[in-house]
Amino acid sequence: MNETEAQIVEFKPSEVAVIRRKATDVAGACREIVMKTASAIQGRKYVRVEGWQSIAAMFGATPSIELVESVEGGVRAVARIDLPDGRQVRAEGFVGDDEKTWSGRPMYARRAMAQTRAISRVCRSAFAFVVVLIDENLSTTPAEEMDGVDSGAVIEAPPKGVEGLRARVAAATNSTQPPAPARSPPRQRRLDVEQAANSSATATHDRSFAFGFGRDKGVPLSSLAVGSLKWYRQCLENELADATKAQYHEKTRGQLAAVVAEEQYRQG
Description:
Layout: H1 13-37, E1 39-41, E2 44-46, H2 49-58, E3 63-71, E4 74-82, E5 88-96, H3 107-134, E6 138-139, H4 161-175, H5 187-200, H6 226-240, H7 249-267
Parallel strand pairs: 2-6
Antiparallel strand pairs: 1-2, 3-4, 4-5
């Protein structure tokens, strides 16, 4: 039995010191990407799959998908992560038919999200302790599991007296300035999103899916030329790098996963 759920692992004091030092180093190395890609929901930040995967990579661990299946009530995926010491951790991701965000989406998108949730959950099971070291305001609940929760920021009452007057003057001054343009995420985010898509893609995918835009609009994945696949992949990656299109990123990730899966399918 090598799953963490089935055994208790004891560490010597010297080993604990090594793990603690490693966790601190990883927290420092991953802080930027975790914080930049985190989702803000009701005053807290939640780590996205890109952040979870970066933490796992720093430990030399790569999550993979073992199973994706349609079950009663939705789509279920099982992810596994192999730890450097030989242990394995497994976790489940689920997209329910009763979820307003996903109930009307195509099956490929729901399967992709189930896999994304499974990967985030299995990384969370193995490395939640690192997230606490990165920032105390980060939640260890994966962001992908917070779909449907109001993401509005918590509004605090303005201060009173002189400080309140200064705050109102500052707000009025700032309101007269043109808004700063949305900045695209750094190239590193695109690389991490691509890694997430590769980890989520499986050989079993909907090859009949067709894009509703571009020069090959309506052509199934199975019939697209190699150059067309690359063109669609670049378009999707560019959209994920555009902060002004954040509301469409979940759908785009699912489409990117489908393209990557088709590429892997052709490579055998």
